[in-house]
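Hi,

Apologies if this is the wrong queue. I'm a grad student, and the batch job for Aminopeptidase from Nyssomyia neivai produced an output file that my downstream script rejects. I'm not sure whether the problem is my script or the file. Here is the sequence I used:
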Amino acid sequence: MGFFDTAIGWVGQNKAVTVLSVLLFAFFISTIALAVQKNNLAAELKTCESTPTPTPGNLQHRLPSSIIPTHYELLLHPDLGEQKFTGKVTISFRITEAAQRIILNSYKLAITTVTLQSPTSQAIETAHALNETYQVLVITPKSGQLATTADNQFYKVTIEFNGEMTGKNVGLYSSKYMRLDGASPREVTISSSKFQPTYARQAFPCFDEPEFKATYNISLIRPNDGEYIALSNMPEEETTDGPANNLKTVKFEESPPMSTYLAVFLVADFKHDDVEIENALGENFKMTMYLPAGQQDKGKFALNAAKDIIEYYIKYFNIKYPLPKLDMAAIPDYVSGATEHWGLVTFRETSLLWDEKEGSARNRQRVASVISHELAHMWFGNLITCKWWNDVWLNEGFASYIEYKGLSVISENEGWQIDEQFLIEDLHSVLELDSKVASHAITQDATTPDEITALFDAIAYNKGASVIRMMESFVGPAVFQKAVEKFINNFQFKSVETADFFHYMDQEVTGINVTEIMSTWIHQKGYPVVTVKKLSATTYELTQERFLINPDSKAQETEQSPFRWHVPITYVTDVANGDKVEWLKPTDEKHTLNVGAASKWVKINNKQEGYYIVNYDNWDEIITELNNVESKLGPMDRAQLLHDVFKLGDSMTVPYNTALKLSTYLKETNETEYVPWSVATNTFTSLYLLLDHSLELQTYITNLIELIYDYVDPQKIGEADDGHLMKLLREKIMNLACRMGQSKCLRYVSAEFYTYLDSLGTAELVKPDVDIRQTVYYYGMKGITNAVDWDKVYDQFIKENDPQERAKLMEALAATSSKQLLTKYMNIAQQKDGPIKQQDYVTIMQYIAYNPLGIDIVWDYVRNHWDNITQIIDVNDRTLGRMIPNITKRFSTAAKLQELQLFFERFPIAGAGAAARIEARETIEYNIKWMEHNKAAIEKWLQENTV
Ligand code: MLT
Ligand code: ZN
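Support response: The file is valid. Your script probably expects a header line. Output copied below for reference.
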């Protein structure tokens, strides 16, 4: 899943401003942060005295494979008052090679005792030490080595430990929220966990690698105050009093073998609701949703959606849901969109809570998508798991693809056309990243926690999903399903590698070698552009070449790879549908496509199922066909043509005029479909920002969207029952219209916004229609420059209890046209324990940077105070890593490139953002080149073609 809802590119250009108050404030914050950090550090470094620290020289990030954990007995006590936790774990393990020492993961934990028992229950005296660099605990027997174990023999190590729960949102951490259901609001503390990929070691010492699957007996100590509950992966077995008067101990049933990152703990006073799941293959079971008190009514949509989706998956995989229960919980502070903890999926509130008053159609689709993604993981990811993170795409790409199958149960009833939306939700964004040298192959080595978390990126999720979609298109859905079912069945409760998956595909198909075909997509980065040359009325010549968005970047490539692919070719012509796949092979100099009957045109890559783009020697034929109102080209074909031609224009492969000319079909044929318009609005928004708010482009676009604006006109809301896609379309069109300064849109938005603003602070809020509310708030706030009005909206944001509404306001606050207010917002966002959640910090920084007036405020702060930022957000946070390319993506001058370079030199520790930094640099280099090459030509065409 994408990690949080991002708005479309509200990005702008830069103006230099450095505000003294920022500096003073930053100093203040950094001083506090430093003091807090020192305290934490002291606690963290409290290792057992008088034990030798192993020299890092003989340690490494990977654990030895000869010590194999089989079972964990784990007791954890999150102390909600102190916001610290204590715990005790006994790990049973086997040894396959005599060992001098036991190495397991432990990080940010203080270890109080360690005892080791031999397979014959003899106590073995040990010394132990922690190593922060490798995040390990090393336990060394004082005499002799540990012998190998026979079958059914186990050593047992018991470790007592403690740690902090504040200032973080990974590992075991505390989270706070306001309970509004009593006589007066009160703040409640809960404790929750998030371990994927390398944070279980921050909650208990463990063998924190996905291949080390073991069973768990988990017990949690919770407050005994009636409302608190304790939850984990498995159902509760028993609850006993103690260990103190005010505490209870909840013991859970033993889990099946699972990876450490899937363990989960929750102690909270949440309310719940449940449904029974019809288990087509076994006993029915209960699905329970846990929500913060006061929010419980907002879980209905999610619960019903989850029920439909999980029942679908049981039938689709034809494998029973593996655990006896399934819970979902919304956590007030959550670092990602959600995590697939087995049996208890935890979500950020905006990914689970939805009601029709505050949640838009887009929010609703997002909630359903996240649920569908996480529930797919119950099989793909949890029942079978990648052996090592280099294959994380097997978890994430698969879940990101299967998620669409799960969503189809809702999409079919409600007309979401979810399959079409794949193009704009998953495919196109990754085609952009993957057209850079800075991209990487789907399978990629990773060793350190920073490298590992960085792999949870668009390549694993979106490209992974896209190449699986392509594979299903050429093996066929029935074969695909069978292979998946057999694959999961065979490896259940075990770990897998990429080759295993394709092996199972190969067993089901005849005539092609899936392993060979797919290795060209999995083991090398990038993708091809297929060039189509018409030879005659029935034959076309196809060739392939790696597609690079910046032709100059080829020189920077250091990777040795043929950059040739097995390209599945499908086509449609004016008289034929070529659904049968033909192959353009890596070794083919060219491929001659015979389309049978004489045709006027050919369009390659049906529904853009192949992970490639297409260039035609005669775009005019395609453009003519697009302008034919009777055209047989479907919405996905049209979206694809728009996408491909602009990419080819961007990469200077075809003249930009061709792309602009193609776009005129949108008005000529009165296009009304959401997916093609979505491609167009995203493309034009980027173009407008790169061209620095070109007036010519503004005129062109305003004219182009004239008819579609009337079609979606917000004045008509309520006249007819709009469908889901109409709501999504309206929002997209209005955003573009308002950005272009189209007067109808701005007038409407302004009237709605002032009605809302005037109602703030009165007994009854008057809110705009929920599906365009974000647009109204955003463009309404753009007109605000005075602190009084901004503060009114800010106060509402702080008070707001609904997560979807809060998210809309959070973005709108960054739209103001006052630099002072933007600075103020940035400063508030970084207050430690301030009103804004840590999970939202990077998002807000990006929102401010997307405002043309805010970019330099953010950029100056980031490049001068990176140290302060990394005290708020750990450099291991992947969202922080992504922040650099996100905020600098519109820079297009040599001066900005140099600033970026200096920033990297000044702060060389990139954490999980190392690859993202390289990407950021490449993007700016490309923007510079793009401006030199395209700007004048575009302006010329616009002048000639705009009335
Ligand atoms: C996912 O569901 O894809 C991931 O678990 C996201 C995460 O929490 O890291
Ligand atoms: Zn996932």
